[in-house]
Every structure is written in C-alpha cells, then in structure tokens.
Amino acid sequence: MTGPVLHLASASPRRRELIARLGVEPARIVPADIDETPHKTELPRDYAQRMAAEKAAAAASDTACVLAGDTVVAVGRRILPKAEDEATARKCLELLSGRRHRVLSAIALRAPDGTMRQRLSETVVKFKVLSDEEIRSYLASGEWDGKAGGYAIQGAAEGLIQWIQGSHSGVVGLPLFETRALLKAAGFAIA
Length: 191
Ligand SMILES: Cc1cn([C@H]2C[C@H](O)[C@@H](COP(=O)(O)OP(=O)(O)OP(=O)(O)O)O2)c(=O)[nH]c1=O
What we know:
This is dTTP/UTP pyrophosphatase. One of its GO terms (biological process) is nucleotide metabolic process. One of its GO terms (molecular function) is nucleoside triphosphate diphosphatase activity. InterPro entries: ITPase-like_fam, Maf-like. By secondary structure, the chain is an alpha/beta fold. The chain has one domain: Maf protein (Alpha-Beta Complex), CATH 3.90.950.10. Helices cover 31% and strands 24% of the residues. Strands 1, 2, 3, 4, 5, 6 and 7 form a seven-stranded mixed beta sheet that branches. The longest helix is centred in the first third of the chain and has 15 residues, at 44-58. The structure holds thymidine-5'-triphosphate. The site of thymidine-5'-triphosphate (TTP) has 24 residues, from helix 1, strand 3 and helix 5.
C-alpha cells in the first residue's frame, strides 16, 4: 500500500529544509502566488491562517496533500511587512528594539478531497535594545531580505534576541511540532 503524496506550496528554502527534518519528502514544490494584502482591521493570527489556507488552495491537487505556511511578525494588532528593502527593514528593527513581539506561524494542509486542516503556532520573541551601530551592521548583512519583520532568527539576528518563548522552527517559517501533528493526522508515515 502506498501512503499519501505531499506537495509543498512554498518558494521558501527554509520551509523545504524544515520539512526534511521530519523525514518527509515533498514529491513536488509548487509555490503559490497569491495576493498577500491584509484586510482592513484583520488580526495578525487571522491573516496568517488565511494566507496559509489560500496558498494551499492555490496549489490544490486532486491526488496529493498540499502543505502551505505563512509567518507573520506582529506588534500588538499591527502586522509588520516582509522586508523587501533596507528602509523597511530599518523601520521594523527600530520598532522591535528592546520589546517583545509575536510571531504567528500558520500551516494549512489541503487533502485531495478539499478538506483543509490548519494549525497555528505563536511565539513571543524579545529583542535587546538595539544601538544605531547594531542596526547599521545588521542591515549591511542583507539577511533581512524577504523576511517577515526584517530579521532572520536562524542567522545573525539570534545574537540580538534575548529570549524566545514558543517554537524556533515556527519563527523560521514552519512549526515542526504542529506540522508533524497535521501530517500524521493526514496519514503520513512519521516516526
Ligand atoms: C521572523 C522570521 C521570518 N522568516 C521568514 C519565513 C518566511 O519565509 C518569511 C515570511 O514570509 P511568508 O509569506 O511566510 O513566506 P515566503 O513568502 O518566504 O514563502 P512562501 O509563501 O512561498 O512559502 O520570513 C525567517 O526566515 N526568519 C525569521 O526569523
């Protein structure tokens, strides 16, 4: 008997590396191109869950389960952007300096019959107070590019983070505890 087939609806190399740690190999990588504009007054957790579900739906398959994720950095009800330029990354870092924020990491698994299973991971991250020099040198690294909130915990930013409470893999983009549970519930063979 053959088990279910997995497609990963993501262009993120981090999500590919993280899923590999569960010993599950996606048969296909199918990046989903969706409109990522938050709705007016949409809460960060609702936005993350909607994005993950829309990515999974956009990559729907009649024969495979489709896994998608979405990672959002939030300060209170405010959703921080994915930093695509240095000015945006700087604004994010200035805002995150010395305070705690939340990282919402949503995953969605769409079965071939259209059933959608979802999970949400929430992590609190505390940055040290960042000096101008620390911000300058972090921006020069370019590591922030394409990252929600303008930082990457898996890189040099971890040296600026005092503590986290929650899921490290969730902050990087795919919460492995929740992902394993979803895949197991969908019949994937995971030890
Ligand atoms: C906070 C944080 C985010 N990120 C990344 C994870 C996500 O890739 C990205 C947030 O954008 P996402 O929209 O979640 O994902 P993506 O556009 O990179 O990939 P895809 O939609 O195709 O799956 O920020 C880190 O790598 N490290 C971090 O510390």
